[in-house]
């Protein structure tokens, strides 16, 4: 598996080249934490997710002025269930079946999220999906693909290109 810490360091350097924000990483998630998350979410986490979170239980940024105020980009395991619920709230009334199958764990800090989408049988679809609240119209006739975009990349690729 990849060296997640190095990938996160490189991602942070690309995203914040001026050094304005400090990188904050969570300690490795335990097997018990990951099992509890699977139970809460109701599906088996993909191997890449388990590998990443077994190395770092999320990462985010904090200013030098207040290092305790962390804006989590990859949410820690203990926040993923609630974060998923918060993002799904946007469209669950108009696209309930789709909302029930979407599990974001990456937080753009603006109402948008990126995460896994389950197929009809309950298995994660390869890649990740990005919810864009600005494209969502609160209209049940809207095509879900207009506001929920499939990104055919895993976590490793995502960190390298975003």
Automatic annotation (TrEMBL):
Give coiled-coil spans as residue ranges: none
Top-level taxon in the UniProt lineage: Bacteria
Pinpoint the Knr4/Smi1-like domain residues: 28-150
Which InterPro entries does its entry note? Answer: Knr4/Smi1-like_dom (IPR018958), Knr4/Smi1-like_sf (IPR037883)
What is this protein identified as? Answer: SMI1 / KNR4 family (SUKH-1)
Which organism is the protein's source? Neorhodopirellula lusitana
Q: What is the lineage of its organism?
A: Bacteria, Pseudomonadati, Planctomycetota, Planctomycetia, Pirellulales
